[in-house]
Amino acid sequence: MTFLIGIVGKPSAGKSTFLNAACLTNAKMSELPFTTIEPNKGVAYIKTKCVCQELNVDDNPKNSYCVNGNRFIPVNVLDVAGLVPDAHKGKGLGNQFLNDLIRADALLHIIDISGSLDKMGKRIKMGENDPYDDIIFLEKEINLWFKQILEREDWDKFLKSHARENKKFIEELHKRLSGIKINRNQITETLKNTGLNELNPSLWSDSDLSNFSKILREKSKPIVITANKIDRENGMENLNRLRNKYTEKIIPCSALAEYFLRTYHQEKKIEYIPGSDSFKILDDERFNQKELEGLKNIQDKIINPFKETGVQAVLDFTVFSILNQICVYPIADINKFSDNKGNILPDAFLVKKGTLLRDFVREKIHTEIADHFIFGIDARSKRRLGENYELKHNDIIKIVTAK
Ligand SMILES: Nc1nc2c(ncn2[C@@H]2O[C@H](COP(=O)(O)OP(=O)(O)OP(=O)(O)O)[C@@H](O)[C@H]2O)c(=O)[nH]1
Ligand SMILES: [Mg+2]
Fold first, then answer.
1. What is the mean pLDDT of residues 74-88?
2. Are 12 and 124 in contact (CB under 8 A)?
3. Closest residue (by CA) to atom 32 of ligand 1?
């Protein structure tokens, strides 16, 4: 299973630019609001320090790629149309297009930190819009959309049949929401957090249901705030102001800077590893004066103060910190760290922190193997690992089967 990360935000905030920067796609970008109507798909890569350097081996990745000791693992990204306040009442393009994000694991909210777009994405004087308002309205619209999903296909009827047939609410709700990528745990935890009674959901008021769907949304589709256009004059100042008001993590970003760097790298004009704190111009002659100045500005005004352009940071933060993933390398030969064909460290899998070896084998490797699975071997220590072993970040593991 590959993660799906959805990009949301008001028109012209830079969503398609972020997608193109992260995935090297060709989604249309323009200053005009509502440039994107149909969703744009791409594949981005999250970055983690590969174990190849520690082991001093040259790896042959199959499900990912490795550059200078950095392992890049694919995730799907979807960029959708701009969302405006009251979208649930049909404003702008409405919010129906959000249904494309129904299977998203997390949402990146791209905000314009320079505050130079009005609510509809039209250009206004820089600083006139408070990005805090964008955070609040978007979350509200997303929560309303989520509640609509929960209620659609007749919530009352669902409750009545549940009461009549005395079925388990959690199981039934899980089935009902099966298309939305919500697991049983998230439902159970939401019930616990809201203090709502699963035995009698027909007594829930509308505000109970709103609260329930809000918390379930937070758990199943967390929103990560990306302060885009940090390169603009007042970006830093606005970011600091916003951080005083909004306590969750906000990651500064210049999608446009990353877009240039990735494009020049693809054209073999610069050396650049996404998310790094420098790039190298390969041949000055291939750039005009304006482009060279642009590159100097990227280094001085974005990379130096912020360590990187932010696109990679946002993706990595989402997968590792918000979705709580760790990286595990299954192999077949514990001395060569290779698969049966001799590929060294072929696969890097993302698994949730706390996953047990048994579940990892069942979910990620193959159910057939899981039936014959006996134990694992830690390739570093050559120790045996039982099925209840809890996987650690960067584990390199051989799965031993009965066959
Ligand atoms: N200065 C600056 N401009 C940016 C940045 N990211 C995007 N832009 C500009 O913002 C404008 C809108 O970019 P898009 O990527 O088309 O925005 P969008 O959010 O996809 O817009 P819609 O599809 O209309 O909802 C374009 O003119 C981009 O060049 C950035 O990091 N810095
Ligand atoms: Mg767009």
1. 96
2. no
3. 229
255, 288, 319: which is the final residue of a domain?
Answer: 319
Measured CA to CA, the distance from residue 170 to residue 333 in angstroms comes to 43
Nearest Cα residue to atom 9 of ligand 1: 14
Ligand 2 centroid–CA 331 distance in Å is: 41
The answer, as to whether pTM is greater than 0.85, is yes
Ligand at minimal distance from the CA of 18 is 1
The predicted structure's pLDDT at residue 200: 78
Pocket of ligand 1, candidates 7, 8, 17, 134: which has the most ligand atoms within 8 Å of its Cβ, to mutate? Answer: 17
Outline where DSSP puts E strands in 242-372: 250-252, 270-271, 280-281, 325-331, 349-352
Question: How far is Cα of residue 199 from the mean position of the Cα atoms in its chain?
Answer: 34
Question: pLDDT tens for residues 102-158?
Answer: 999 999 999 999 999 999 999 999 989 999 999 999 999 999 999 998 888 778 887
* 9 and 121 fall within a common domain: yes
Q: Is the CB of 29 under 6 A from ligand 1?
A: yes
Name the residue type at position 294.
G
Boundary residue ending a domain (219, 246, 265): 219
Residues 240 and 387 in one domain: no
**At residue 19, what are phi and psi to the nearest 5 degrees?**
-60, -50
* Ligand 2 center–CA 68 separation, angstroms: 33
CATH value at residue 349? 3.10.20.30
Quick one: tokens of 120? 């509809």
